[in-house]
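Board notes (copied after class):
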Amino acid sequence: MPPVEILEKIFWVGAVDWNIRHFHGHTYSTHRGTTYNAYLIVDKKIALVDTVAHPFSDEMMEKIKEVIDPSKIDYIIANHVESDHSGSIKEILKHAPNATVVGTANCKAGLQKHYFGNWKFQTVETGDTLNLGERTLTFLEAPMLHWPDTMFTYIEKDALLLSNDGFGQHLASSKRFDDEVDQNILMEEAGKYYANILWLYSSVVIRKIEEVQKLGIKSEMIAPSRGVIWRKDPMKIVTSYLKWANGEAEKRVIIAYDTMWASTEKMAKAMLDGISSEGLDVTLYRLPFSDTGDIIGELLETKAILVGSSTINNGVLPSVSPFLREMEGLRPKNKIAAAFGSYGWGGGATAAIEKSLKSAGMELVMPAITAKWVPSKEELQKCYEFGKEFAKKVKSSA
């Protein structure tokens, strides 16, 4: 794939990873692959903004060589330390040994601890600028979006925001721009990325967007470090981020569960029928056969969740525990929830679920419902009524 001139003398020189199916170890599923975006700015001084994961460094170098002699690169702008963005800095410096690496103080420390290189480094803070000739780069620190070192790079001449992970998506495509891809897929992947990576930092997202607006920064194009570039309507993704960060969601329900001998599953299906009878959309996920990242992505725009488990060793099934831990870590905003489950003698699963849901910041709107051994016809009717009542609480929620 050749370099792409996204604006006059600004080139995409990244790489597309069509085959990756897991990210951050195995914590994030990437069913549609991903991209590593790097941007070459050709001016009196030449700057490369971000690089690519190391296995793709040769692809990036070939693209750069189609535009300029790599030895002429003056600056490598490191918006983020993480190795999928910084992994080819060492390779670039082999070709451009006189280049200066530019980043935040946290970035400098992080790069040194990742690569142990004695590089020429220029530390920048919010408001600092770097003149390239016709264009001037302005830097904006964005700590915890999603690492402490993260920053954005802005080019006022083009109203171009180079936002690194912010506004990105895990999406491999032969196309480079938002208006060239399926919009449903694009927003699904953008939402999944926000939910799994940035949800915990929603308050930071709100503050940073407000800061950008107060600084008078206008973005006619947003170019993240992964996924497609927002050129048709960049405010679409900014508006979506504000909606997600503020916890706005549709009044629908997710039921996530696992079962040992089908008792908890029978309860789940009875509750699903009860919820559906109230006219709400409801989705059922058995956790061992479902992708946690996908469920978290759907939960982003879903108001309510029911979590169920059979009891084992006085707690939840091993397949349920990681899902609960994930929600505790992300702390989804403005969600309501309840627990359910079956047991044989001592119980314990529903208490553990409720504890986790509270820890995740969710509002428990109903006491847990349980069934001993196999739920009877009468108990399943109670589960149905439980679902109806839960749906009513969802409909009346703020």
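Comment from the instructor: The chain has a mean pLDDT of 98. Residues 4-245 form a domain with the Metallo-beta-lactamase; Chain A fold (CATH 3.60.15.10).
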